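A student in our group prepared the protein record below, which I am reviewing. Here is the record exactly as it was handed to me.
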Amino acid sequence: MSFFIAIAFFTLSVCLQYVWIKYQRREHITQQQKWYGVKIDTEIKEKTPSMGGVIFLVLGVLACAINHKWDSLMFWSLPVLSGLIGFADDWLKFRSHTSEGFRSLSKLKVQLLLCGVWVIGVYMSGRLGLWPGVFDGAWWLSIPLAFLMTAGTINAVNITDGLDGLAGGCFLISLGVLQMLLPMSTENTEIMIELFFMVAGFMFWNHRPAKTFMGDTGSHFLGGALAALCVMNYRTLAIIPAGFMFILEMLSSAVQIFTIRKLNKKVFLMAPLHHHYQMKGYDESAVTLRFWLVHAVGAVMLSLVLAMV
């Protein structure tokens, strides 16, 4: 059964992305590059279709319809609804012909509301926990940590999505790491197979030079999926190793903002971290490959530490 699910999701992902790319090109659905960006390959990237994550939404709804149990609905609700927030942001950027969509604070408020309601729902279903044997039953700790880490993961994946193949490749590595950390039930296996092959189908078109970008729609979806996998398996702390590179990227942006505002100087040439190395002259493919490697090594090492707890 898992084999047929894998074939079906990969084939659908590749084919639907192809059709969606053709449609976006015809309708000129692209995204304006930030004026303060790295200004590398700007003309090429501004002509690249920018909402590949829409196919994640379609396949996420399909996966939920195939297995319409309550737990499946609870899981897929977070990535799908997160993806819709990202889609609204992408659509505003497209319609306004700028690189800015939602105001950052407004988007954050909507994200926090969604994450808060979702985490409470998981707690009410009895599936919330930090890690087996770690503060079991401590709802006063597990709820706020799950809330903060879920919202943080969604934004961290979004920040990481800045190079061809970077966020998608890191997410596939994260799924591999979660094989070590999560209980391999039939439900988890099916969800992870569906996620792996829908993202693999996207990566078929997203490797450099990318034929499509996932946009905020896709990065919000993947961030929600990564958080949901960990939180709904009583293993919220698994987000730390599984999201190793995403967390590094988010921290680099936080450090840059803090030092600019408080110390009036930069730590990095540009944040997040992958842009720092682009500004130093590294080829985009080289940065992506090395970030994948660092993510894999860091995630495995942290997983081994967590597994010993």
User: Anything to note?
Assistant: The two ends are 34 Å apart (CA to CA). The chain has one domain: 2-240. The CA atoms of residues 13 and 37 lie 30 Å apart.
